[in-house]
Amino acid sequence: MKKSVLLASAAIMMCYFTSCNGGKKTEEAAAQAEEAATEAAAPEYKLMEGLPTVDLADFPKDADGKITLFDGKTLKGWRGYNRADVPARWTVDNGAIRMTGSGAGEAGAKDGGDLVFAHKFRNFELEWEWKVAKGSNSGVFILIQEVEGQPSYISAPEYQILDNVNHPDAKLGKDGNRQSASLYDMIPAKPQNSKPFGEWNKSKIMCYKGTIVHYQNDEPVVEYHLWTQQWKELLDNSKFSKDKWPLAYELLLNCGGENKEGLIGLQDHGDDVWYRNITIKELD
User: Fold this and answer.
1) CB burial class (10 A; 0-12, 13-18, 19+) of residue 74?
2) Residue 230, SS3?
3) Domain residues of the chain, as ranges?
């Protein structure tokens, strides 16, 4: 049982046996306490357990401490979100991880689904290169919690990957906050310096003790701070607000879970996208 539920239950019992009116039990006090408990209780969910993980010692590390997460030849270390194998639409194509689009939308194909690296990270610098086909959409997620029956983005901030010119999502949201390198549906990437479809872009996410910075083509374009009032306000004004999507709100408000760590992942949005030169440097 979640701590919020336990506290709320305690509140009910206190109000049931005690009230402002001389300590007598009142139906009104009990009703008010029950209402407060309902508001305090978070949506129920189940985290997936027992899925494969990898030891980072098995992956090359350079003199600067950068660990190679993709060797350009195999999908060693990678698997599907909420599954032990690699969805068939993710392949290695000419030195890049490729998602072959299905046209079926987000994880819509039976042989599709998001791809994750099977190790949890806390403080890090993640670097990669990417390109998209015309009109394609994807994303890179951090601090993913694998939640049974739910998509990966329900718990994870998203670095948007997009063809800004040809995909309609670029014109949705607010002030361009669904364009490439944006914190999806929350903060627009500025300056917006992505390259056209078919060309390689360079990206980085720095995650350190709740401070997150997005870089695109060697420029910092987004900064935000997890587990703060700012973060709550961003969620309150997004598609993940408590009113619109209470479970996503709960998970994202506390993203990274108790240990403030999670998986990184690549999104299957049903479109063609390529990723290469993926490295990570763990920070103290």
Assistant:
1) exposed
2) helix
3) 3-40, 56-282
Instruction: Reply yes or no on domain 56-282 having CATH 2.60.120.560.
Output: yes
Q: What tens digit of pLDDT does each residue of 83-121 get?
A: 999 999 999 999 999 999 988 778 778 899 999 999 999
The pTM of this model reads 0.86
Q: Please tell me the total number of residues recorded for the chain in this structure.
A: 284
Instruction: State pLDDT tens for residues 126-165.
Output: 999 999 999 999 999 999 999 999 999 999 999 999 999 9
> Which residue stretches of the chain are H helix?
3-17, 27-40, 229-236, 246-253
3-state secondary structure at position 247? helix
User: Which strands, in side-by-side order, build the sheet including 137-144?
Assistant: 78-80, 115-121, 262-266, 137-144, 158-162
Tokens at 202, concatenated: 């360079």
Between CA 86 and CA 65 the distance in angstroms is: 27
One-character DSSP codes across 9-42: HHHHHHHHH--TTTT---HHHHHHHHHHHHHHSP
Q: Quote the CA–CA distance of 240 and 16 in Å, as a whole number.
A: 35
Cα–Cα distances in Å, from 261 out to 61, 148, 264? Answer: 21, 18, 10
CA 226 – CA 235 distance, rounded (Å): 11
* Pair 35, 26: CB distance under 8 Å: no
